[in-house]
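@channel anyone free to eyeball this complex?
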Amino acid sequence: SAVISQKPSRDICQRGTSLTIQCQVDSQVTMMFWYRQQPGQSLTLIATANQGSEATYESGFVIDKFPISRPNLTFSTLTVSNMSPEDSSIYLCSVPGRGRGEKLFFGSGTQLSVL
Amino acid sequence: KQEVTQIPAALSVPEGENLVLNCSFTDSAIYNLQWFRQDPGKGLTSLLLIQSSQREQTSGRLNASLDKSSGRSTLYIAASQPGDSATYLCAVGGNQFYFGTGTSLTVIP
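replying in thread with the prediction:
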């Protein structure tokens, strides 16, 4: 299993500002995933963060809007840049268990509201 | 890119009924499929994990099946209870993990 600490748990931000979300895992993991859950929707994969290389972004998400850092095997950050009300969502980091075919574990999420 | 669809989007049943939730995916090159439940305003609770080599997994009143070749999984809930009311999500695991559209279940006492 993996224990994931994510912060902040919630924030209210002004339009045009940026917020950085941190994700700390209690063990070394190769891949970390960042998801967005918009109100009433399912989870959408934003990007895969690999240590030592650039993050891989899904269609519809760009690095300028959602820059990701992955400085080591236990930590990652996601920044939501130049926010607008449409960015109001829950943001979650996630890691797979050891080896392929293992469970997906989640942080507790960051509830972001943009005014 | 993997596309994952869940049917129905919403379901309302009386207490005690057996029910089936469906999950379909477009790319059969997966490592596993995981079912989650999400309660309003809460995080995700993992229910069952099926490896790509397995056909089903059971936990209590829950049974999940996987037919990788046809791109389908079902979650069977026996003798439903009001406490089962939640949104159920399937997640397909390959190199990334993609989530389905979700089924909102309401069990009426």
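from a first look: The mean pLDDT of chain A is 92.
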